[in-house]
Write a structure and sequence with these properties.
This protein is α/β, with parallel strands linked by helices. The chain has two domains: about 190 residues, Glycogen Phosphorylase B (Rossmann fold), CATH 3.40.50.2000; about 170 residues, Glycogen Phosphorylase B (Rossmann fold), CATH 3.40.50. It is built from 15 helices and 14 strands. The chain has an eight-stranded parallel beta sheet, with helices on both faces. A six-stranded parallel beta sheet has the order 11-10-9-12-13-14, sandwiched between helices. Helix 6 packs across helix 10 and helix 7 crosses helix 13.
């Protein structure tokens, strides 16, 4: 058995040189957004907990979030020079195809050298060349599909992957029914108990007697959500509602300037929320995009929410995600084009409707699937031993 050298976690276009490793080795591929990266790291952590001597290598896309977040979590990652197709400027896709070919070659080299027992795909640019290469090399593949509408790469793998771990019912319209396992989406570790709730109110200097709205647009922020809040700041500040407003780093200075006229201890504006446990703990209502990771957290924590699906995602999958909750009366959806006009008025109406908040919260909690990462590891080990 080849052995691999133990290296410090790093992000590179290379990979660990052969020296020392255990017989238990896995590659996890994907990223691009927190919605892909957090589940990937959660799966890796669960694998490591189950198999203390496991070797895990990530494959991501150069220049994307995973090249920073994965090493910070303690894992090595290899970068591929992959990028998405440009649907507006078609002529730019010639270079994209060249990068895809280069990524396929690099993925093949990494996979052959690392010799994993299985490859896990979590979505994102890098997962396409990695999983396609693994399929050609007859290495078992597990796909973790986070959304209620499968992406192009994952649909292509329908008859090549050994298992599809999904978060929504009805996914047999994309994948063979016998390969589907309903596991839910792994999420970052969040702890909310009575003691944490009390601490959270102190952290934000908020009152437990007042209602709180949490606004979050994902890891990079969302322009529409920010514009929607900014348009109704006066109305919000004329109520007793407390607000935690996460703008994202790209919009922080602009939104901070707009909010400067409303200096108020009921408004917290920040580019990034470091303590998401605390933010969720104080939130009576969450306004959010409809990314798979965010929805999974909302359901596991039983939070009432208004979802504004991003229109800038492949195959409009966020609308499909949101509708999965709306159809079970577990959330309210407002379309992006209508958000600036309707979002905050709807939120102010809802935050004062205690029975409606309770119904959304209870139905949301009913859709939460616990211990997702552990269940996914069960399936990974099954296909690795098959």
């Amino acid at each position: 058995m080849k052995k691999y050298e133990k290296l410090k976690p790093s992000a590179s276009t290379d990979f660990p040189l052969p020296s020392e490793r255990s017989e238990e080795a896995f590659i996890i591929s994907g990223g691009g957004t927190g919605g892909h990266i957090f589940p990937a790291i959660a799966i890796a952590n669960a694998l490591k907990k189950r198999l203390p001597n496991v070797e895990i290598l990530f494959i991501g896309a150069e220049g994307r979030m995973e090249m920073e977040k994965v090493p910070a979590a303690g894992y090595n990652i290899v970068g591929l020079p992959i990028r998405g197709l440009d649907r507006k400027k078609i002529w730019r896709n010639f270079k994209t195809l060249c990068l895809l070919a280069k990524s396929m070659r690099r993925a093949k080299k990494v996979i052959r050298t690392f010799a994993p027992n299985a490859v896990i795909g979590v979505g994102g640019y890098a997962s396409a060349p990695t999983l396609r290469t693994a399929a050609k090399l007859n290495i078992p593949i597990l796909v973790q599909e986070q959304n209620s509408y499968a992406g192009v790469t994952n649909k292509w793998l329908a008859h090549k992957a050994a298992c599809f771990c999904v978060a929504y019912e009805g996914m047999e319209r994309f994948f063979p029914k016998e390969k589907i396992v309903l596991t839910g989406n792994p999420i970052r570790e969040l702890k909310i108990d009575n003691k944490e709730v009390e601490t959270a109110y102190h952290y934000f200097n908020f009152s437990p007697q007042k209602k709180t709205i949490l606004v979050m647009g994902g890891s990079l922020g969302a322009r529409t959500l920010n514009q929607s809040v900014a348009a109704y700041l006066k109305e919000l500040m004329n109520t007793d509602v407390q607000i935690v407003w996460q703008t994202g780093k790209y919009y922080f200075e602009e939104m901070k300037q707009k909010a400067s006229a409303y200096s108020n201890n009921r408004l917290i504006i920040t580019d990034f929320i470091a303590c998401m446990d605390y933010a969720y703990a104080v939130a009576d209502l969450v306004i959010s995009r409809a990314g798979a990771g965010s929805i999974s957290e909302l359901c596991l924590l039983g939070k009432a929410s208004i979802l504004v699906p991003s229109p800038n995602v492949a195959e409009d999958h966020q609308t499909h995600n949101a509708m999965a909750l709306v159809n079970k009366d577990a959330a309210i959806m407002i379309r992006d084009a209508e958000a600036v006009e309707k979002l905050i008025p709807q939120a102010l109406e809802l935050i004062n409707n205690e029975p409606r908040l309770h119904t959304l919260s209870a139905n949301s909690a009913g859709m939460g699937l616990k211990n997702s990462a552990e269940h996914i590891v069960d399936e990974i080990l099954k296909i690795a031993k098959a």
